[in-house]
Amino acid sequence: MPSGGAHRAVRLSPAVLVPTLRHPMASASAIGTLVSLAGAERVAVTVGTGFTGALTLGQRPVRWTFVADYVRALRGLLRGEQVEWNGAPIRMMQYPDFGPPRPIEIPILVGAAGPKGTAVARELGDGVFGAMRPVPGFDWSAVLTCDTVLDEGEHPDSERVLAAAGHAAGVTMHYAVEFGGVDRLPNGHMASGSAISGPGSGVCVFARGRGGPRRSPRWPSRPRTPRPARGCSARARTPC
Question: Is the pLDDT of residue 201 over 50?
Answer without folding.
Answer: no
